[in-house]
Amino acid sequence: EVVRRKRRIMRCILVPLSAAVCVLGAVNGFQLSPGQVSNLPAQRSLLCSSRGRIGGGLTDGSQRKNGAGSARMAAPSDYVPVPKPLLDKVNFPMDIKGMSIAELKQLSYELRWETIEQVSRTGGHLSASLGVTELTVALHYVFNCPEDKIVWDVAHQCYPHKMLTGRRSRFPTLRQWNGLSGFTKRKESEYDCFGAGHSSTSISAALGMSVGKQLTGKQVNNCIAVIGDGAITGGMAYEAMNCAGYLKQRMIVILNDNGQVSLPTGTPSAAGTVPVGALSASSSKMLSSQPFLDARAAAKSISKLFPEDLQKLTRKVDELARSAVSGEEGASLWEELGFYYLGPIDGHDLDNLVPILENLRDSDSSKPVMLHIRTEKGRGYLPALKASDRMHGVAQFDIPTGQQKKGAPGQPTYTSYFSNTLCELARQDPTVVGITAAMPGGTGLDNFGRFFPKRTFDVGIAEQHAVTFAAGMAVEGLKPFCAIYSTFLQRGYDQLVHDVVIQSLPVRFMIDRAGLVGNDGPTHHGCYDLAYLGTLPNIVIMAPADEIELMRMIKTSWAIDDKPSCVRYPRGNGFGVEGLNALFGYSLDEIPGPSDVSAIEVGKGRIVRRAKADMKIKVALLTIGTRLEQAVRAAQLIQEETTDVGVTVADGRFMKPLDKDMIRQLAETHDVIVTAEEVMKMAVLWASVCTYICRSLLLPRLRIRQLAESCDFNITAEEVGKIALLWASVCIYVGLFRRLRQVARYQCHGRSGREGKIALLWASVCLYVGLFRRLWLFLKPRCVYV
After folding, report:
1. Which regions of 513-653 does DSSP assign to beta strands (E)?
2. In degrees rounded to 5, what are phi and psi of residue 226?
3. Residue 515 Cα distances to 309, 571, 714, angstroms
4. E-strand spans in 548-601?
5. How far apart are CA 16 and CA 22, in angstroms?
6. 516 Cβ partners below 8 Å, 6+ apart?
7. Distance (Å, rounded) from C-alpha 609 to C-alpha 118?
8. Can you name the residues that pair with 18 across neighbouring β-strands?
9. DSSP structure class, residue 74
10. H-type alpha helices, 413-560
11. Containing H/E element for 434?
12. Of 61, 66, 29, which is closest to residue 46 (Cα–Cα)?
């Protein structure tokens, strides 16, 4: 009934609206005849017919018959290096300001092929950049960067942007040491106003920039957030849009809808609309034009004179009318969030895209705008369009065929071992489920999904939701395996603490890409997980050193039903039979399968190599995770170079809980303990080992524990401060016990019998009491706020 009522209202509106458009067109110098729209020579005409469509009948804007745009993309088999006369003249955005639309089309054609040729030599994110080539050209043609701010989200779409902003000559260094970053990077160029290696952050950043411009009194306030490649599925984007609508702050959000969420996931685009046609492109240009906005503003001013009930009706009529013109029923979502919605339009059609952006640039409205464009990921490069992943991220490749130049097939990856082990567990246990956040291919859950589609959940770029979603499953007795990259799990940290750890829910976190990941750079390194997970109570943290250990730890995690657990493992390949036998002391004929390995006792490390008992100096190398290989190789080198030093190599396996028995044994039998781990400067394993040794070995008679292992209690900050003060005083006091006793003995030297004993006792008491008071006075002001 609601739908029928809406349709009746829309039919009642369309006739007078069409008449109004005709009148408005006549006032502004053009005529609207049935079935035809005649264009004005000026670029800011209100209406024009669509020049291309996206979808089944997709046509490349570069294939049009007008001007330089008639050049066609060469078929891969006919590929020859493309001459780039226009691009060669462009060093910065100011160089394209005087170009015609036909020249902008030719520039887009050349820029797309430059991107293909450069990435073919270095590897990188290819298809997302190919999809935004025309959009990039249009943005830099219309807006004045770096004064106007453009935030790319996700920033792997930025390759054409970098080429137009003075960095084309540096592309041979893309994603290399001291080379160009694969994402926007503020230190790299003033044109990169905000770094975005993760996703869904652009709207918040652009909104903050817009408010900053307003509060600092800047005359021009154009802040554009380009959000695409699935980033709109992140909840943070909606939080920012809700705030922008509430603030009524001027900004432009361009939704780059390419139908994918990073890697293909089977999840439809967030917009979920049919391909755009001619009507949408024409209506978007009309709805963005200044005369239409002026007329709409005048109508709003008149409606304010009406009674409140009638004002509500006119607002609803306005919303329905613009939805009817745009043909986009989902527009109401953006309208409810406070945005002025335009679209969807063809993101490759410069004839329409440029005038619409100019209208938005010149508009006096302070309301945020949502411009919905449709693009094609991998646009213009046939091998990318045919590939299952659209060649999202590629190694070096051959341009005619698209075949990537990868090395000889090596050992299976850690990701594949995880996937196979999870499939084996799922066959045995129907409660096993897999969850990922838009990375099924990267985490191996795509393979799991082929066998267990109903137990595979891809939630999109929404790590926070993924963690709490898994927690809810655990409440109902399922065994969720939440597979997320280390760098992306940072985004769900609050949920991990609040929803999982505090409630001791047995969620199993499979943390892929732990440690250094190479070319993607600092935004994607997994260097922080041990630090941010190691501070949490009641959680098991494991790190395998090889593929067999990984399979065993996954089974260990599966068996833990009373608390959360984490398995962090690296990107890359396993060691294979020869490597395992040579490095870690295995005696294998072949790699065992998941069904052939067993779980590990929680908190139990292992000694991989022992120092000889007759060595003068003994050194223990204690590692966790992938650093075990380097530790074994270092021990071998030391053995070759000297006969005086014996090296023991130990694999801690567990960050929490530590194998305290093994650490005690190493501390008591070795002269030096060296920890090796792949984290930041404040090493987590090192800190944990030092803390344990100080508590258990240096002060063996002190029986004082920390306040609590968890925070499941109510206590004031003042009480914590008093406890911390007492703890610090007692630790220092007892720590100085032996030193003070030696001083007292020295003072009583030469005295004997009862007199000497009394003097020794008196001197000790005086020193202890005096120092305790000094310590109390020293520590009291420093512990008030602990």
Report:
1. 540-542, 565-568, 606-609, 617-623, 645-651
2. -100, 105
3. 61, 8, 37
4. 565-568
5. 10
6. 525, 526, 527, 678
7. 47
8. none
9. P
10. 414-428, 440-443, 445-451, 463-475, 486-489, 493-495, 529-534, 547-559
11. strand 432-436
12. 29
Residue 107 tokens read as 């520039």
Q: What is the amino acid identity at position 692? A: Y
Catalogue the active-site residues.
377, 463, 491
Q: Is the pLDDT of residue 652 over 60?
A: yes
Contact of 659 with 605, CB cutoff 8 Å? yes
d(CA 368, CA 617): 70
> From CA 33, how far away is CA 465, in angstroms rounded?
51
Alpha-carbon separation of residue 419 from 423, 435, 489, 546 (angstroms): 6, 12, 19, 15
| Cβ–Cβ < 8 Å for 6, 329 | no
Dist CA 45 CA 211 (whole Å): 31
pLDDT digits (tens, 9 = 90+) for 365-401: 888 999 999 999 999 999 988 886 778 889 899 998 8
Q: Which of 4, 13, 3, 5 is nearest to 320 (CA)?
A: 13
* Overall average pLDDT of the 511-534 stretch: 82
Query: Do 236 and 204 form a contact (C-beta atoms < 8 A)?
Result: yes
Nearest to 553 by CA among 583, 500, 609, 514: 514
Q: Which of 317, 293, 288, 291 is nearest to 303 (CA)?
A: 317
Q: How far apart are CA 136 and CA 373, in angstroms?
A: 13
Instruction: Write down the residue that tokens 């979920």 correspond to.
Output: 272
What six digits make up the tokens of 350? Answer: 């410069």
φ and ψ at residue 254, rounded to 5 degrees:
-105, 110
The backbone torsions φ and ψ at residue 256, rounded to the nearest 5 degrees and listed phi first, read -85, 95
Side chain identity, residue 546: D
Burial class (CB in 10 A: 0-12, 13-18, 19+), 494: exposed
How would residue 167 be classed by pLDDT, with cut points 50, 70 and 90?
very high
Query: Which residue in 675, 701, 707 sits closest to 688, CA to CA?
Result: 675
Element (H, E) at 523: none
Instruction: Name 541's Cβ contacts closer than 8 Å, sequence gap at least 6.
Output: 530, 533, 534, 565, 566, 568, 654, 655, 656
Report CA-CA distances (Å) from 622 to 32, 596, 650, 683.
Answer: 79, 28, 5, 12
What's CA 268's distance to the chain center, in Å?
20
Q: How far apart are CA 670 and CA 510, in angstroms?
A: 35
Averaged pLDDT of the chain:
77
